[in-house]
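Sample intake sheet
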Amino acid sequence: MISQGNEVYLIENQDIQSLFSARKRDCHKGDFGYVGIMGGSTAYSGAIKLANMSLASLRSGAGVVRVIVPQSIVSSISPYLLEQTLFPLKDENSHMTFLPDQLKQALAKLKALAVGMGWGEGKENTKILTYLLQTVNFPLVIDADGLGALAKMDKTCLLQTKARVILTPHRKEFEKMSGYSLLDINQDPIQKAKTFAKKYHVILLLKGPTTIVTDGKVVYLINRGCSGMATAGSGDVLSGILVGLLGYQEANCLTISAGAYLAGVAGELAQKEKTDIAMIASDTISHIPQAIQEIRKKI
């Protein structure tokens, strides 16, 4: 790691190599975790994004990925799922309904969960998110519309949960969630991210030209990535990678930084092949295997 001073470090290849070490020959899928991806609404493109996201989780090493979606989009997403498993939830007007018994079944055996992608403005999203925060004791990645739901809630719920919460906003989402102005965030994003993470006991991944990952104590910076990743679905791919890693790695700042680094390297490799103009989010996923090879290289 390259120290930037004041407990701020720039992540380098060798810092995360141990997280991508070769697996033993006698391993099995249970060693690498059941992870869940919960989201979706009737938008067909949202189904594709969820499918891409779940594939990113598998490519990142999770043993089993369970895609938890409203019943009404099952027919839309099913054609895009091969190795993943599918768990439909009852819904109303395409949005998930809050049914605790059903949610309990959906969460069974999971080691980590990502929630909020393609959720939309479901009227019971905050109830579902509150239930998750009150119930689960494993890592919980909150992204996209999940962050929108959290912005409407009393943030003290983050202090009462047993889950290890990971929040993945871009700066505009962080503005809505934190109460800081976008101007203040842009002037000192590291300090604003660090202060928020410390106050609410979360790991915060703040997206930007340089990604910031902090738990309020240490700050890791990731400067991998490229302009070709500025395309729809790239954030979903990142969250998929994160929850995939959390199936078999510790939920700490280094693991989250490794996920951001892996996504960035995969994006760079995709851009070399597809160009910055033509690449799409699924190109990043297809280059995850090559990115892992790059990270494993000894310098």
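Comment: The longest strand covers residues 64-70. Residues 29 and 63 are 4 Å apart (CA to CA).
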